[in-house]
Design a protein that fits this description.
single chain, 66 residues, mainly alpha, two-stranded antiparallel sheet, globular
Length: 66
């Protein structure tokens, strides 16, 4: 079970894709994670942009999104 919290707002992060997009964009060895809202704010993109990237990474076969 994934049990992490957002470093910015403290929201629980339980979805594997949220962990995966954090690791893919910020580095696999990160220890601090962002929820989708805070990650979008941090990267100055929309949540829709992040969701599109997740689908692209899945289509590419990225192991972080299995």
């Amino acid at each position: 079970m994934i049990n992490k919290t957002c470093i910015m707002c403290g929201a629980p992060i339980t979805e594997k894709n949220v962990i995966g997009i954090n690791q893919k964009l910020l580095g696999r060895k990160i220890i601090n994670f962002y929820c989708m809202d805070c990650l979008a704010d941090y990267l100055e993109v929309s949540i829709e942009d992040l969701l599109e990237r997740i689908e692209e990474f899945k289509d590419e076969g990225c192991k972080l999104f299995e």
